[in-house]
Specification:
Length: 110
């Protein structure tokens, strides 16, 4: 009869250890802080992978300024062609939006 009482005790011990291991693993992952963006990160054709958040923000801000000054939209309707600059319609990248999304997902950002 002793063998039958030991078997459930061992199973209970294994389940408790598995639960504790899962809790420790999740705790470790929740405290993990990302310092740089993954290498394969692009915005449009701009590579920002491997950069920290401030460097990526600065690079996107430079691209935003370039778009405002030189960017344009070309529209062709039948024989009529129109060119509208991004500055005329106040078009720009929302550089702060990605950082807002990351902070909402509770990633720590510098």
């Amino acid at each position: 009869m002793k063998k039958q009482t030991r078997k459930p005790a061992w199973m209970l011990l294994i389940l408790i250890q598995a639960f504790m291991g899962t809790c420790v693993g999740l705790s470790a992952l929740s405290g993990y802080e990302i310092q740089t963006l993954p290498d394969a990160t692009y915005v449009s054709d701009i590579h920002i992978g491997g950069l920290n958040y401030q460097e990526a923000r600065a690079r996107l801000q430079e691209y935003n300024e370039l778009l405002k000054s030189k960017g344009r939209i070309q529209i062709a309707v039948s024989q009529d062609h129109y060119v509208i600059s991004y500055g005329q319609i106040n078009a720009c990248l929302d550089v702060e939006k990605p950082w807002t999304i990351y902070s909402e997902k509770s990633l720590e950002m510098p």
